[in-house]
Amino acid sequence: MSALDAHLVVRRDGFTLDAELRAAAGEVVALLGPNGAGKTTALRALAGLVALDDGHIELGGERIDGIAPEHRHIGVVFQDYLLFPHLSALENVAFGPRCRGVPRSRARAQAAELLARVGLAGQAGRKPRQLSGGQAQRVALVRALATGPRLLLLDEPLAALDARTRLDTRAHLRGHLAGHAGPTVLVTHDPLDAMMLADRLVILEHGRVVQTGDAATITSRPRTDYVARLVGLNLYRGRADGDLVRVAGDFTLTTAGPQHGDVFVAFPPAAVALYAARPEGSPRNTWPATVAAVLRHGDALRIELTGPITVAADVTPAAAVQLGLEPGRPVWASLKATEATSYPA
Ligand SMILES: Nc1ncnc2c1ncn2[C@@H]1O[C@H](COP(=O)(O)OP(=O)(O)OP(=O)(O)O)[C@@H](O)[C@H]1O
Protein backbone atom coordinates (compact mmCIF):
# COMPACT_ATOMS: atom_id res chain seq x y z
CA MET A 1 0.00 0.00 0.00
CA SER A 2 1.12 3.50 -0.79
CA ALA A 3 2.74 6.07 1.46
CA LEU A 4 1.97 9.78 1.27
CA ASP A 5 4.73 12.28 0.62
CA ALA A 6 3.51 15.84 0.20
CA HIS A 7 4.86 19.35 0.19
CA LEU A 8 1.84 21.61 0.16
CA VAL A 9 2.28 25.23 -0.86
CA VAL A 10 -0.84 27.35 -1.21
CA ARG A 11 -0.55 31.15 -1.36
CA ARG A 12 -3.39 33.48 -0.50
CA ASP A 13 -3.62 37.16 0.40
CA GLY A 14 -2.00 37.42 3.80
CA PHE A 15 -1.65 33.66 4.28
CA THR A 16 0.74 31.04 2.98
CA LEU A 17 0.51 27.34 3.64
CA ASP A 18 3.95 25.78 3.29
CA ALA A 19 3.90 22.38 4.93
CA GLU A 20 5.59 19.04 4.39
CA LEU A 21 3.47 16.06 5.28
CA ARG A 22 4.35 12.38 5.22
CA ALA A 23 2.35 9.37 6.26
CA ALA A 24 3.29 5.71 5.92
CA ALA A 25 0.82 3.07 4.76
CA GLY A 26 -1.49 2.27 7.66
CA GLU A 27 -0.30 5.30 9.63
CA VAL A 28 -2.78 7.83 11.03
CA VAL A 29 -1.33 11.35 11.08
CA ALA A 30 -3.20 14.14 12.84
CA LEU A 31 -2.84 17.67 11.59
CA LEU A 32 -3.41 19.75 14.71
CA GLY A 33 -3.37 23.51 15.05
CA PRO A 34 -5.23 26.62 16.15
CA ASN A 35 -7.95 28.31 14.10
CA GLY A 36 -6.66 29.68 10.85
CA ALA A 37 -3.46 27.60 10.93
CA GLY A 38 -4.19 26.16 7.50
CA LYS A 39 -5.42 22.67 8.40
CA THR A 40 -8.48 22.72 6.18
CA THR A 41 -6.50 24.28 3.35
CA ALA A 42 -3.97 21.42 3.63
CA LEU A 43 -6.73 18.81 3.58
CA ARG A 44 -8.46 20.43 0.63
CA ALA A 45 -5.15 20.59 -1.22
CA LEU A 46 -4.61 16.86 -0.65
CA ALA A 47 -8.15 16.15 -1.85
CA GLY A 48 -7.60 18.27 -4.96
CA LEU A 49 -10.22 20.88 -4.05
CA VAL A 50 -7.54 23.58 -3.78
CA ALA A 51 -4.72 23.78 -6.34
CA LEU A 52 -1.08 23.81 -5.19
CA ASP A 53 0.93 26.91 -6.03
CA ASP A 54 4.11 24.92 -5.45
CA GLY A 55 5.28 21.62 -4.02
CA HIS A 56 3.97 18.15 -4.78
CA ILE A 57 1.73 15.32 -3.62
CA GLU A 58 2.96 11.77 -4.10
CA LEU A 59 1.04 8.66 -3.24
CA GLY A 60 3.05 5.46 -3.49
CA GLY A 61 5.71 7.33 -5.45
CA GLU A 62 3.20 8.59 -8.03
CA ARG A 63 2.50 12.31 -8.47
CA ILE A 64 -1.21 12.98 -7.99
CA ASP A 65 -1.29 16.79 -7.64
CA GLY A 66 -2.09 17.24 -11.32
CA ILE A 67 -4.93 14.73 -11.19
CA ALA A 68 -8.61 15.73 -10.83
CA PRO A 69 -10.08 15.08 -7.34
CA GLU A 70 -12.36 12.26 -8.53
CA HIS A 71 -9.42 10.37 -9.99
CA ARG A 72 -7.14 10.57 -6.95
CA HIS A 73 -8.63 7.53 -5.20
CA ILE A 74 -8.97 9.47 -1.97
CA GLY A 75 -11.68 8.85 0.64
CA VAL A 76 -12.87 11.97 2.45
CA VAL A 77 -15.00 12.24 5.59
CA PHE A 78 -16.17 15.78 6.18
CA GLN A 79 -17.34 16.93 9.60
CA ASP A 80 -20.94 17.28 8.47
CA TYR A 81 -20.90 13.77 6.87
CA LEU A 82 -22.51 14.86 3.58
CA LEU A 83 -24.52 11.65 3.24
CA PHE A 84 -27.10 11.54 0.47
CA PRO A 85 -30.32 12.24 2.40
CA HIS A 86 -32.61 10.28 0.08
CA LEU A 87 -30.50 7.09 0.13
CA SER A 88 -30.41 4.51 2.93
CA ALA A 89 -27.20 3.90 4.87
CA LEU A 90 -26.57 0.82 2.72
CA GLU A 91 -27.19 2.71 -0.53
CA ASN A 92 -24.94 5.54 0.65
CA VAL A 93 -22.10 3.07 1.21
CA ALA A 94 -22.76 1.15 -2.02
CA PHE A 95 -22.90 4.35 -4.09
CA GLY A 96 -19.15 4.82 -4.63
CA PRO A 97 -18.43 1.23 -5.68
CA ARG A 98 -21.53 1.32 -7.97
CA CYS A 99 -20.15 4.45 -9.67
CA ARG A 100 -16.93 2.54 -10.26
CA GLY A 101 -18.78 -0.21 -12.03
CA VAL A 102 -19.11 -2.77 -9.24
CA PRO A 103 -22.28 -4.79 -9.92
CA ARG A 104 -25.26 -3.84 -7.79
CA SER A 105 -25.56 -7.05 -5.78
CA ARG A 106 -21.86 -7.16 -5.00
CA ALA A 107 -21.74 -3.47 -4.04
CA ARG A 108 -24.70 -4.00 -1.69
CA ALA A 109 -23.19 -7.13 -0.15
CA GLN A 110 -19.89 -5.31 0.49
CA ALA A 111 -21.75 -2.33 1.94
CA ALA A 112 -23.70 -4.59 4.28
CA GLU A 113 -20.49 -6.23 5.45
CA LEU A 114 -18.77 -2.86 6.03
CA LEU A 115 -21.75 -1.53 7.97
CA ALA A 116 -21.82 -4.69 10.10
CA ARG A 117 -18.14 -4.19 10.87
CA VAL A 118 -18.91 -0.82 12.50
CA GLY A 119 -21.92 -2.20 14.35
CA LEU A 120 -24.60 -0.84 12.01
CA ALA A 121 -26.05 -4.05 10.56
CA GLY A 122 -29.43 -3.14 12.07
CA GLN A 123 -29.42 0.39 10.61
CA ALA A 124 -28.54 -0.45 6.99
CA GLY A 125 -32.03 0.37 5.72
CA ARG A 126 -32.32 3.72 7.50
CA LYS A 127 -32.12 7.13 5.87
CA PRO A 128 -29.51 9.56 7.29
CA ARG A 129 -32.16 11.57 9.17
CA GLN A 130 -33.15 8.37 11.02
CA LEU A 131 -29.59 7.90 12.29
CA SER A 132 -27.97 9.41 15.37
CA GLY A 133 -24.97 11.70 14.87
CA GLY A 134 -22.57 8.94 15.87
CA GLN A 135 -24.20 6.43 13.51
CA ALA A 136 -24.17 8.90 10.61
CA GLN A 137 -20.48 9.53 11.31
CA ARG A 138 -19.77 5.80 11.05
CA VAL A 139 -21.75 5.52 7.82
CA ALA A 140 -19.72 8.41 6.39
CA LEU A 141 -16.49 6.67 7.38
CA VAL A 142 -17.56 3.36 5.88
CA ARG A 143 -18.72 5.11 2.73
CA ALA A 144 -15.30 6.73 2.37
CA LEU A 145 -13.64 3.34 2.82
CA ALA A 146 -15.97 1.43 0.50
CA THR A 147 -14.09 2.28 -2.66
CA GLY A 148 -10.77 1.13 -1.18
CA PRO A 149 -9.15 4.59 -1.27
CA ARG A 150 -5.38 4.91 -1.35
CA LEU A 151 -5.53 7.82 1.08
CA LEU A 152 -8.15 8.59 3.73
CA LEU A 153 -8.81 12.20 4.79
CA LEU A 154 -10.86 13.05 7.87
CA ASP A 155 -11.92 16.64 8.52
CA GLU A 156 -12.81 17.18 12.20
CA PRO A 157 -14.64 13.85 12.13
CA LEU A 158 -16.05 14.20 15.66
CA ALA A 159 -16.78 17.93 15.72
CA ALA A 160 -20.50 17.66 15.01
CA LEU A 161 -21.14 15.14 17.80
CA ASP A 162 -22.34 15.92 21.32
CA ALA A 163 -19.86 15.30 24.15
CA ARG A 164 -21.15 11.86 25.13
CA THR A 165 -21.38 10.49 21.57
CA ARG A 166 -18.00 11.99 20.86
CA LEU A 167 -16.47 9.97 23.67
CA ASP A 168 -17.97 6.68 22.43
CA THR A 169 -17.22 7.37 18.78
CA ARG A 170 -13.65 8.40 19.49
CA ALA A 171 -13.06 5.13 21.31
CA HIS A 172 -14.31 3.11 18.33
CA LEU A 173 -12.99 5.22 15.48
CA ARG A 174 -9.41 4.16 16.10
CA GLY A 175 -10.38 0.52 15.58
CA HIS A 176 -12.35 1.34 12.43
CA LEU A 177 -9.39 3.24 11.00
CA ALA A 178 -7.23 0.15 11.44
CA GLY A 179 -9.26 -1.42 8.62
CA HIS A 180 -7.72 1.06 6.16
CA ALA A 181 -4.40 -0.12 4.75
CA GLY A 182 -3.32 3.21 3.28
CA PRO A 183 -2.25 6.42 5.05
CA THR A 184 -4.83 8.52 6.92
CA VAL A 185 -4.65 12.27 7.51
CA LEU A 186 -6.93 13.61 10.20
CA VAL A 187 -7.53 17.33 10.68
CA THR A 188 -8.57 18.51 14.11
CA HIS A 189 -8.16 21.32 16.61
CA ASP A 190 -8.98 18.95 19.48
CA PRO A 191 -5.79 17.61 21.08
CA LEU A 192 -7.66 14.66 22.57
CA ASP A 193 -8.89 13.53 19.14
CA ALA A 194 -5.38 13.90 17.79
CA MET A 195 -3.72 12.01 20.61
CA MET A 196 -6.24 9.19 20.77
CA LEU A 197 -6.68 8.61 17.05
CA ALA A 198 -3.30 9.31 15.53
CA ASP A 199 0.04 7.53 15.52
CA ARG A 200 1.80 10.81 14.90
CA LEU A 201 0.93 14.47 15.31
CA VAL A 202 1.90 17.27 12.95
CA ILE A 203 1.40 20.67 14.56
CA LEU A 204 0.56 23.45 12.14
CA GLU A 205 0.76 27.14 13.07
CA HIS A 206 0.52 30.06 10.64
CA GLY A 207 0.69 27.66 7.70
CA ARG A 208 3.96 26.04 8.86
CA VAL A 209 4.77 22.77 10.57
CA VAL A 210 6.19 23.74 13.97
CA GLN A 211 6.50 20.32 15.57
CA THR A 212 5.94 16.69 14.70
CA GLY A 213 6.17 13.51 16.75
CA ASP A 214 4.15 10.99 18.70
CA ALA A 215 1.82 12.14 21.47
CA ALA A 216 4.26 11.25 24.25
CA THR A 217 7.08 13.32 22.74
CA ILE A 218 4.86 16.28 21.94
CA THR A 219 3.24 16.37 25.35
CA SER A 220 6.50 16.07 27.25
CA ARG A 221 8.61 18.28 24.99
CA PRO A 222 6.53 21.08 23.49
CA ARG A 223 8.36 23.48 21.21
CA THR A 224 5.88 26.35 20.91
CA ASP A 225 3.59 28.26 23.28
CA TYR A 226 0.54 26.85 21.48
CA VAL A 227 1.64 23.27 22.08
CA ALA A 228 2.67 24.04 25.67
CA ARG A 229 -0.78 25.50 26.40
CA LEU A 230 -2.41 22.56 24.66
CA VAL A 231 -0.70 20.08 26.92
CA GLY A 232 -0.78 22.34 29.96
CA LEU A 233 2.92 22.95 30.56
CA ASN A 234 4.93 26.04 31.39
CA LEU A 235 7.48 26.53 28.63
CA TYR A 236 10.54 28.78 28.37
CA ARG A 237 13.44 29.20 26.02
CA GLY A 238 16.84 29.74 27.49
CA ARG A 239 20.57 29.07 27.45
CA ALA A 240 21.86 26.13 29.41
CA ASP A 241 25.15 25.72 31.17
CA GLY A 242 24.94 22.32 32.86
CA ASP A 243 21.75 22.13 34.91
CA LEU A 244 21.46 25.92 35.10
CA VAL A 245 19.32 27.56 32.42
CA ARG A 246 19.12 31.31 32.04
CA VAL A 247 15.53 31.84 30.89
CA ALA A 248 14.92 35.59 31.17
CA GLY A 249 17.31 38.48 31.80
CA ASP A 250 19.44 37.21 34.65
CA PHE A 251 16.81 34.81 35.94
CA THR A 252 18.14 31.27 36.08
CA LEU A 253 16.32 27.98 36.69
CA THR A 254 17.99 24.85 38.00
CA THR A 255 16.73 21.95 35.90
CA ALA A 256 16.85 18.18 36.00
CA GLY A 257 19.39 17.43 33.32
CA PRO A 258 22.68 18.87 32.13
CA GLN A 259 22.40 20.61 28.76
CA HIS A 260 24.43 23.14 26.85
CA GLY A 261 23.39 25.96 24.56
CA ASP A 262 19.85 26.84 23.44
CA VAL A 263 17.22 24.81 25.24
CA PHE A 264 13.58 24.66 26.22
CA VAL A 265 12.59 24.24 29.86
CA ALA A 266 9.15 22.76 30.59
CA PHE A 267 7.31 21.92 33.80
CA PRO A 268 3.69 21.34 34.82
CA PRO A 269 1.75 23.98 36.77
CA ALA A 270 1.28 21.41 39.56
CA ALA A 271 5.06 21.41 40.12
CA VAL A 272 4.99 25.06 41.22
CA ALA A 273 4.32 25.58 44.94
CA LEU A 274 3.24 28.93 46.37
CA TYR A 275 4.07 30.41 49.77
CA ALA A 276 3.18 33.59 51.65
CA ALA A 277 6.81 34.06 52.74
CA ARG A 278 10.13 32.90 51.34
CA PRO A 279 10.26 29.15 52.11
CA GLU A 280 12.99 27.94 54.50
CA GLY A 281 15.57 25.39 53.38
CA SER A 282 13.99 25.95 50.06
CA PRO A 283 14.25 24.04 46.80
CA ARG A 284 16.79 25.55 44.42
CA ASN A 285 14.26 27.52 42.41
CA THR A 286 12.52 30.15 44.51
CA TRP A 287 11.38 33.55 43.33
CA PRO A 288 9.00 36.36 44.28
CA ALA A 289 5.91 36.65 42.07
CA THR A 290 2.59 38.45 41.88
CA VAL A 291 -0.80 36.85 41.26
CA ALA A 292 -2.18 38.07 37.92
CA ALA A 293 -5.27 35.84 37.66
CA VAL A 294 -7.06 33.00 39.45
CA LEU A 295 -8.86 30.54 37.15
CA ARG A 296 -10.75 27.31 37.70
CA HIS A 297 -8.91 24.26 36.39
CA GLY A 298 -10.78 21.02 37.05
CA ASP A 299 -10.73 20.48 40.80
CA ALA A 300 -7.77 22.80 41.24
CA LEU A 301 -7.27 26.51 40.77
CA ARG A 302 -4.81 27.71 38.19
CA ILE A 303 -2.90 30.75 39.35
CA GLU A 304 -1.24 32.91 36.73
CA LEU A 305 1.77 34.73 38.08
CA THR A 306 3.95 37.55 36.86
CA GLY A 307 7.51 38.13 38.03
CA PRO A 308 10.88 37.33 36.54
CA ILE A 309 8.99 34.73 34.44
CA THR A 310 5.29 34.39 33.65
CA VAL A 311 4.19 31.10 35.12
CA ALA A 312 1.03 29.07 35.82
CA ALA A 313 0.71 27.23 39.14
CA ASP A 314 -2.02 24.80 40.19
CA VAL A 315 -3.09 24.89 43.83
CA THR A 316 -5.99 23.42 45.78
CA PRO A 317 -8.91 25.73 46.58
CA ALA A 318 -8.02 25.34 50.29
CA ALA A 319 -4.46 26.55 49.68
CA ALA A 320 -5.76 29.47 47.63
CA VAL A 321 -8.00 30.57 50.50
CA GLN A 322 -5.24 30.12 53.06
CA LEU A 323 -2.79 32.19 51.01
CA GLY A 324 -5.42 34.78 50.14
CA LEU A 325 -4.65 34.38 46.43
CA GLU A 326 -6.22 37.15 44.39
CA PRO A 327 -4.92 39.41 41.65
CA GLY A 328 -2.19 41.70 42.94
CA ARG A 329 -1.22 39.46 45.89
CA PRO A 330 2.58 39.02 46.24
CA VAL A 331 3.72 35.42 46.86
CA TRP A 332 6.82 33.24 46.70
CA ALA A 333 6.94 30.57 44.06
CA SER A 334 9.12 27.51 44.17
CA LEU A 335 9.88 24.68 41.80
CA LYS A 336 11.90 21.53 42.39
CA ALA A 337 14.75 21.16 39.96
CA THR A 338 13.73 17.53 39.36
CA GLU A 339 10.39 18.74 37.94
CA ALA A 340 11.93 21.06 35.32
CA THR A 341 12.88 19.22 32.14
CA SER A 342 15.31 20.82 29.73
CA TYR A 343 15.87 19.71 26.15
CA PRO A 344 17.63 21.15 23.10
CA ALA A 345 15.78 23.93 21.25
N1 LIG B 1 -11.11 30.38 0.13
C1 LIG B 1 -10.25 31.16 0.78
N2 LIG B 1 -9.79 32.29 0.21
C2 LIG B 1 -8.90 33.08 0.84
N3 LIG B 1 -8.42 32.81 2.07
C3 LIG B 1 -8.86 31.71 2.68
C4 LIG B 1 -9.79 30.81 2.08
N4 LIG B 1 -10.02 29.79 2.93
C5 LIG B 1 -9.26 30.03 4.02
N5 LIG B 1 -8.57 31.17 3.88
C6 LIG B 1 -7.59 31.72 4.83
O1 LIG B 1 -6.53 30.79 4.93
C7 LIG B 1 -6.07 30.70 6.28
C8 LIG B 1 -6.12 29.25 6.73
O2 LIG B 1 -7.47 28.82 6.82
P1 LIG B 1 -7.87 27.31 7.11
O3 LIG B 1 -9.36 27.23 7.05
O4 LIG B 1 -7.09 26.40 6.25
O5 LIG B 1 -7.38 27.13 8.60
P2 LIG B 1 -7.78 26.03 9.65
O6 LIG B 1 -6.52 25.68 10.35
O7 LIG B 1 -8.51 24.92 8.98
O8 LIG B 1 -8.72 26.81 10.62
P3 LIG B 1 -10.06 26.34 11.38
O9 LIG B 1 -9.61 25.44 12.48
O10 LIG B 1 -10.59 27.65 11.87
O11 LIG B 1 -10.93 25.68 10.37
C9 LIG B 1 -6.93 31.64 7.09
O12 LIG B 1 -6.22 32.83 7.26
C10 LIG B 1 -8.15 31.83 6.24
O13 LIG B 1 -8.73 33.09 6.48
From TrEMBL:
Keywords: ATP-binding, Cell membrane, Ion transport, Iron, Iron transport, Membrane, Molybdenum, Nucleotide-binding, Transport. PROSITE patterns: ABC_TRANSPORTER_1, ABC_TRANSPORTER_2, MOP. Residues 280-344 form the Mop domain. SMART domains: AAA (SM00382). InterPro entries: AAA+_ATPase, ABC_SmlMolc_Importer, ABC_transporter-like_ATP-bd, ABC_transporter-like_CS, ABC_transpr_FbpC, Mo/tungstate-bd_C_term_dom, Mop_domain, P-loop_NTPase. PANTHER family: SPERMIDINE/PUTRESCINE IMPORT ATP-BINDING PROTEIN POTA, SPERMIDINE_PUTRESCINE IMPORT ATP-BINDING PROTEIN POTA. This is ABC transporter ATP-binding protein. It comes from Actinoplanes nipponensis.
